[in-house]
Each structure stands twice: as C-alpha cells, then as structure tokens.
C-alpha cells in the first residue's frame, strides 16, 4: 500500500542520494537477473539444436556466470548502501529531534512529556530510518522494474509482457483500498506504544514504592494489560497487512499462471520459440518481486509513518520567545527585580498567578512562602524566564525581561532547584556545566563556599571522582551542595533557591542553610522554602495564597498581624516542637 508521508519526505533532505543509489543498485541486480535468464533460456533452448556449438555453449555459460557475479556484487553493494542510508537517516533524524528538544524550554517540555520525547527520538527514529532505506527505494523500484522487464520481454511475447506490466502497476493503487483502515490504526498503534512505554518507565522508577506498599503485583497486572492492548494493536495492523498480502499474492500467482498458460498456448501454436518461452517463464515472477519486497517493508514503514506524526508535532512546536531589544530602559530604574500585575496560567488549568506585583531589592533576601499550589514555583519559573507572563511585565534593574534573551537573562539570574540534576561523569564535569572554562582552582573555590572542598580533596581522584549515574554515588546533601557550587560558578547577581533543602537530611539541611546565609551577605537571594524557620531573617517575606499576594513584611511584622503567615508558623511550630514564634 502507498505510505507517502509528507513529513518523512520533507525530512529526507540529504538522504535522496542514498535512496536513489539503492534504487540504481536494485535495477543493476534486475538487469543481471534478465541477463542470467536470457543466457540460461538460450542455452537450454538450443541445447539439442544441431547448430548449437561448444563455443556458443561456453559463451552462454560465461554470460550466465558474469550475470550471476553482477547480481552478487550489486546485492552486496545494495546492503552496504542500505546500511549507509540507515546510519545517515539515524544521525539526521536524531540531530533534528535533539536540536528541537534542546530549543524547548521547561514549559514546552511539560507539554509534550518526557516519554513522548524519548519514544520519538529512540523508537520513532528506529522505525523511520527503515522508511528511507527500504520503503522509499522499494516504492521507486516498484515503478521502474516492471517497465524495464516489459521492454526485455516484449520481443518474446508482447501479450504476456503487457499483461504482467499492467497487473504489477495496478497492484500498488489497488492495495491502497486499505489506506483508510491503516490511517486509523497507525495512530492507535503509536498511542498504545507510548502508553505502555510511559507506564513501564514509571513502574521502574517507582519500584521501591510499589514494593514498600506491596503493590508490585497489581502494577504488574496493569502492565500486562497494557502490553496486551499494545499486542492487540499490533495484531490489528498485521490483520490488515495479511489482507493486503492475500490480495497481492492472489493477483501475483494468478498473473504468473496466466503468463504460463499464454506461453504454453503460443508454444503449441508455434508462435514462440522454446528459448523465448523459457525466458518469459523465468522473468514472469520477476515482475512482482519488487512488489513483494515493498510489501515486506510495509509493516515497519507503517510504524515509521506513525512515529512521523509525533515527530512532526514536536518539530512544528513553536519555540520562539518574545524578544524586543528596542524596549527602552526606565529613566529611574529600581535596583532589583520588579513584577507588575503579572498573570500566568498553565495550559488547560486555572491561573496559577492572578495579579502579582512584588519587588526584589538588590543585595537583600526575599522569601516567598505559602501553601502548595499558591504560585511560588511559578514565580521562580517566570523569573528564570522558563515561560512568559500572559499579562503584566517583569523588569530587571529597569530593563524589561522581553528585551533580554533567556540566555542573557540566565547569566544574571540563576536557580538552584528542589532536585539538582547531576549527570554521569566527574564532579568537575558537572561543575563545568555552568562555566566550561573554569580552572580547577575556581572549581575548588566554589566548593569551599558550600563546605564540600575538604570532602572532595579526601577523595583519591579529587575533582575527577565519578559521581555515578544521575549522581547516584553521592548523598542527597552532597548533590545539593554541588548544585549550589555549580550555580555560584555562574557568577549571577541573583540566586533563586526553590525548596533547595527539601530532599536532604537534617545535618545537610543545616549546612546548606549556613551556606545560604553566607551568600546572603554578597548576593541577592530569592528563597522559596517550606521551612519557615529558615527564612525568619529575610529582609522581606511575601505570603502567597491562591495566586495572589496575601501578606508582605518581615517575620516579626507578619507575626504581629492575624493572617496566613502566623497560622503557618504556629502549625509548623507545633509539629516541630520548636520556638519559632519567639
């Protein structure tokens, strides 16, 4: 069936040379087949002829051997060309997908989901590359081969050549009657695959939790159900393919039988020589070998077309960001960051921020507190320009955020997230993500600030100690400290700490807060923390509720007035048995 996909064809840039090379080599193989059939049929047809000499027999045998060698070499080269095409397609497609993924900011990553990105770049590419190395060359070859064989066979039997050429060319559009069914199945097939992949990945990541609560058997049962659902989609596709194969093979074998009958009749009538009749019979099935090759590649090509829809959605995602460098500076700029009447809503959700106005003075410590879902992390995301406000504006020392690119802004404003991401490699590798040209001395200085330098020096390989997969060889506190040290290497003027101690032990938390207090003496800090005792010395505290500023002031001021802050402090004080209220 015809699986012409505009996305895949558009992405074939740089691959057409290999695609046409594969078609050309297949045509050379077909020419070798025709030469071999002509030599063998001539040899057998004239074998008992008294005019047939030993020299002619030798020439026929040499011609057959030469044709066989030609087919052998061209088949080898076809395999090599398909491999090269696969490799180039793999590299080209993954480069396009990875490049686009790297263009996405946090907001867009959340839209597509990490599993969709993984399946598109891994499983999708594996299927799509076969479309270029097998399906497209096979489709072009399907058109060229019957025409070539028609001209090779027409002198022997114009009737058979015409009939076989017509049937072979009709097979492809005839198979397209299955197109509507396939269009529906390909979407269901890929959705089932993504659902299974997502559930499996989540199950592996949360295996400890399932074991802890004895839910692993229930999870396994659901996983089996999803695997079976995916299996059913595969079988649905196979059923359509089987129906297509049944129709195709029925016509192919019917056409070959028809050709044999016509040749036998012509042979009995004496209108065709025995050698020509043999050649027609030898080449008859060759008319359809190209169609069969294409049908064999159809299932994999179908998966590639299904993947292409997901890849197209990814590649077509608008990653442009508002950028207006001509916006003027304020005449009397505020020394710090100012948010004015900012509103933001995540797609498909109620507004996370309704009408937020706040100031973050330079050289001071500003804290954001409130219940979960009140908008604290959304403000952090806006300050880092992971996304842009729907309404209102943000200014950095009098300069509108939209007059800066995200890259320019992130040289001045940096963030230590709740979960610091470390990558396989050394401590130095992870630190140099922030400053690729930093010297070992500069790395150690940043580690000194977070009180981790002595531990690093105690390691046999020092800065070049392997941290393991995702920093698995380090404790939670060590990972967070390396994350802070990495942020310090950036030399940003403003540092956002977004719940940076929520996933570490008590001792590590104490050390990290001591580090933050030292940084407060020379940097502008924006602290988001659920631990209210840690922000009581902040220069100003914003209490958020329902996407709005409910209260503002210093700790003592807020404790003296009724409201959410005092309520939260008292509740936490009761839980911890401490004396925060004092």
Q: What is the CATH C-level name of the largest domain?
A: Mainly Alpha
Number of structural units classed as domains: 2
In percent, how helical is the residue content? 55-70%
CATH architecture type of the largest domain: Up-down Bundle
Encode the helix/strand succession as letters: HHHHHHHHHHHEEEHEEHEHHHHEHEEEHH
What do we call the CATH homologous superfamily of the largest domain? ABC transporter type 1, transmembrane domain
Report the average pLDDT across residues: 82
Task: Give the number of helices.
Answer: 20
Q: Give the structural class.
A: alpha/beta
Q: Estimate what percentage of residues fall within beta strands.
A: 5-15%
Largest sheet: 6 strands, mixed
Strand order of the largest sheet: 6-7-8-3-9-10
Whole-Å distance between the termini?
A: 78 Å
Poorly predicted regions:
none
Shape: elongated
Task: Please explain how this structure is put together.
It is a single chain. This protein is an alpha/beta fold and 582 residues long. The protein has two domains: 6-315, ABC transporter type 1, transmembrane domain (ABC transporter transmembrane region fold, Up-down Bundle); 336-576, P-loop containing nucleotide triphosphate hydrolases (Rossmann fold, 3-Layer(aba) Sandwich). The chain is built from 20 helices and ten strands. Helix 18 (506-519) links the parallel strand 7 (494-498) and strand 8. The radius of gyration is 35 Å and the shape is elongated. The termini are far apart. 35% of the residues are buried.
Give me a quick take on this structure.
By secondary structure, the protein is of the alpha/beta class. The protein is built from 20 helices and ten strands.
